[in-house]
Write a structure and sequence with these properties.
Blueprint: H1 3-22, H2 29-34, H3 38-63, E1 72-79, E2 85-92
Antiparallel strand pairs: 1-2
Helix pairs in contact: 1-3
Length: 93
Amino acid sequence: MGLKGMVLSGIAVVAGAIMYWAVTAQSSNTVSNHGFQLSTVGVILMIAGGVGFLISVAVFAASRRAPSVPPRTFDRETVDEVGRTSLTHEEQR
């Protein structure tokens, strides 16, 4: 999804707006007998495009976050010239 989904959703919203506000269907037997209205299809496309856009934005935002890396720990043992040892515990985030 992501960026491609946002573009596709934008196209669906534009197509729905054109069908709702710019296209007028002539009164014919098909329209009056079967109840197919372009304005209704336009509203459905606008709603579906808006919902798809919001989902795509959420997916896009989630994919842009830096992945969380668990902290790394190191245990070091050092020995000096005399032979004494010291232990060091280190944690990096």
